[in-house]
Amino acid sequence: MVRIRFLVVVVIGFAGGFFSPCESRGDIVYDPALQFDTVNNPSTKGPWTLGWTNTLGGGFNNFTTPGSNGNIFGRVGPGITVVDFNTDTINVGAISSVRWLPGQIRISPGTNGEFGVIRFTAPTTGMYNLLASFSGNDIFAPSTDVYVLVNSVTQFNGIVNTAWGSSGPGIPGAGPSFTQQTFLALGNTVDFAVGNQNGSASFDSTGFTGLITAVPEPNSLIMASIAGVALLWKRRRRLNQSLNGVDQ
Question: How many separate domains does the chain show?
């Protein structure tokens, strides 16, 4: 009975470790910056596609035209819609009035009302944690509307209207952020979109940071905990028998 109680306590402890808010063991993280593909679209490094749409939540179109300037690589679409990335991990990128933090993505809407979009396509069915933040990445104040959509349904919208450097030298303009946990089936989509709120795409470069985390099912974590504890218990029992001179 003592051994059974010990095993239960250890299993609870292991499971508690899995569910600790400070530690997310086994989670799979998808980062559009780390998985940005400067050559292929969709990305071969993660479930991300760069594109555009004329209507929020409407038909999604893949970018087909690559574009680059120094350390900046990305895709260009109609109305000069742009999604690109600063490949430099140390230095701020700068082209004309646009700025990028090291390793940062920029989304810019089109002159004819096109939305620049980064799309995540769920590679597995399950629960996902969504995180996104937007910022002003032009030295002149942008005026963009930003969105997060799940399966083309808006979950969040906000405004970016602060210029790069307005909060301090070398700092993007402050913008809105979003977080949500949601269920996604295989093939479901999450879109991060930027539009030209005031009808003009001038100075509308918007910085984007996103993170999507696939959360393991609790049952899987508990079973993994039990299997791990059983193995530890078996090894401890053999060690005790060995110390007591019992032949294995």
Answer: 1
